[in-house]
Predict the structure of Two-component system, OmpR family, response regulator ChvI.
Amino acid sequence: MLNEVSFEDTCFVMPPGPPARVLIVDDDALILETLAINLEDNGIETETAESGEAAMRRLSEDANFDLVILDWKMPGMSGLDTLKAMNAAGLDLPAIILTSLTDQIFEESALATGAVDFVDKSRSFSIVLRRVQIILSGVRGRNSSGEDEGSGGVGEAGRIVVGALTLDRKAGRAFWNDAQVPLTLTEYQLVDELASKPGRDIKYRDLYNLVHGENFFVGTGGDGYRANVRSFVKRIRQKFKDMDESFEQIENYPGFGYRWREPE
């Protein structure tokens, strides 16, 4: 169940322009109301649907949404079924899967179907809000012109190649030896930040701020953010190692942060 919190200290400013529109799909009326109220309190317009079928009917009438939030486990069409139906209908809309099904196999299925993120319902709403804001602000495709401050090679617009790694910034996807790595949006951001600056040490705090925003705190103690970053990096490493046992590109600088190993 989503926890209600205050978001005044997330220090995230949406870009100028008309309010973003988000379609929320969940069979739980309380979650629908909680999500809608909190997103609207943060300047985001929302509409709700209580089933995948209702969502598809609404999208057939008006697909002018910036994001769709889908509950996975719903009667009738599941969130994954709804995402597949959106794909079949040619609806190119970013989608977040919001669920209590936290096993990695579900996450991988959601990402393989085209979801841009997979969020555990037990997380605080501030985490959900941050993920929504990142997508709406276009951070998943940041610097999509293909320009890059690091030493990674730039190919076609929005794609960066660093050794065996290819980053597609427009789609927010990472590929290792041409095979897609099943990264969530947050994990992709961290890989992009490290790999686009190979050989450069990135501080724990800078990596944490990239995910959560400045002045946002999680974990226990003054260094709780370090444990949070380590947890993310551990998951990222494992996903790469599942594809390539020899993967060792993410190096730790003890007490400071992480770096992406420079290609040989």
